[in-house]
Write a structure and sequence with these properties.
single chain; about 280 residues; mainly alpha; 3-stranded antiparallel β-sheet; two-stranded antiparallel sheet; 7 helices; about 45% helix
Length: about 280
C-alpha cells in the first residue's frame, strides 16, 4: 500500500499542515463540517472533490485513486484531530482488505509468474498461489507496520496532507520529502520513523518468515536444478528499498490526484450534451 504513512506538517507556508498546534480544534471547539473549507479559505479555491467526503474513520477521506484504489489516509484539511490507535488500525484495515485489493494482488502475482520472480516457487497453479499469498502478505504486513503499528507506538500521524501549493517541482519535492518527514499526533514535525523503520521491519519479517528457501526443481532440461534461497540480507534490503520507492511514487500521485480529478471533471462538463447545446 502502499502505504502510506508518509505525511507531515510542512515547515513553510507552502506546506498544507504548517498550522500551529493552536489551530487544531481543541476540546470543546467544533471542527469544520466535512467538506466545508476552513475559515479564511478563498472562494476561488478548487471545487471540492470526492476526497472531501468523510471516510468511515473520522479524520480520514473517502477518496480513491483513479476512482478505484483506496486513498483513505490522504487529506486536504490541516485542521484534523489526531487519530487514536484504534482508528489507525481500522483505516489501515479498510484500505488493505478493500475488495479491489484482491484482483490487484492477482494481477501482480500473474506478472511475477510471467517474470519467474522467486524461481524457487516454480511454475504452475500451485506456484501462482504461493506468489499470490506472498504478495498479499507483503502488502498487508507493510501497510500495518507503517500505518498502524509504528505510527501508534511512536505517536505519528499516518495521513498524507496534500500541499496543492507551488509549481510541479515544489510539490513533487514536498511529496517525496514526506517519506522522511512526518507529523506527530500533537502536530509537530519529526523524522518519519514509521515509514523508514516500519517498512524495514516489514521487509525483514516477510523475507525471513515465508519467502522461499533454497530448493531443487525438476525442469525439462535439468531434473535437479538448484535454486538459491531468497531469505538473504541482500533480498531483504532490496525489498525494503522497493517498498520505500513505491511509497514515494504513490505519494507523488496522491499529491497531484486532485488536479487530475479537476481536469477530468472539466472535460466531462465540456463533453456533456448540455454544454454543447446552445441556449434558446
Amino acid at each position: 500500500m502502499l502505504s502510506a504513512a508518509q505525511q507531515t506538517t510542512p515547515p513553510s507556508n507552502s506546506d498544507p499542515s504548517a498550522q500551529t498546534q493552536s489551530q487544531t480544534p481543541t476540546q470543546g471547539q467544533a471542527a469544520p463540517p466535512a467538506g466545508q473549507a476552513p475559515s479564511g479559505t478563498s472562494k476561488d479555491a478548487p471545487a471540492a472533490t470526492d476526497q472531501t467526503e468523510q471516510g468511515k474513520v473520522p479524520g480520514t477521506s473517502n477518496d480513491r485513486l483513479f476512482k478505484v484504489l483506496p486513498n483513505f489516509l490522504t487529506v486536504q484539511s490541516a485542521q484534523l484531530k489526531p487519530l487514536t490507535t484504534g482508528e489507525k488500525f481500522k483505516v489501515v484495515a479498510l484500505g488493505t482488505f478493500d475488495p479491489v485489493q484482491y484482483p490487484w494482488w492477482g494481477l501482480l502475482s500473474a506478472i511475477g509468474q510471467a517474470e519467474n520472480s522467486e524461481p524457487a516457487y516454480g511454475q504452475g497453479w500451485a506456484a501462482y498461489g504461493k506468489r499470490y499469498g506472498t504478495i498479499a502478505a507483503d502488502s498487508t504486513i507493510e501497510n500495518f507496520m507503517v500505518g498502524a503499528v509504528f505510527a501508534s507506538a511512536l505517536h505519528e500521524d499516518p495521513r498524507f496532507y496534500q500541499s496543492s501549493n507551488g509549481g510541479f517541482a515544489a510539490r513533487t519535492g514536498y511529496a517525496v520529502s514526506r517519506i522522511f518527514v512526518t507529523r506527530t499526533d500533537s502536530g509537530h514535525r519529526q523524522f518519519n520513523y514509521s515509514e523508514i523503520f516500519g517498512s524495514a521491519s516489514a521487509a525483514a519479517i516477510s523475507t525471513y518468515s515465508y519467502h522461499p528457501r533454497s530448493t531443487y526443481l525438476r525442469t525439462p532440461s535439468n531434473p535437479h536444478l538448484f535454486v538459491g534461497s531468497d531469505r538473504t540480507l541482500v533480498n531483504a534490503g532490496e525489498t525494503w528499498g522497493t517498498q520505500v520507492g513505491l511509497d514515494a511514487i504513490t505519494i507523488v500521485i496522491k499529491e497531484f490526484w486532485p488536479d487530475v480529478q479537476r481536469k477530468m471533471a472539466r472535460k466531462h462538463k465540456n463533453d456533456s450534451p448540455d454544454a454543447s447545446t446552445p441556449k434558446p
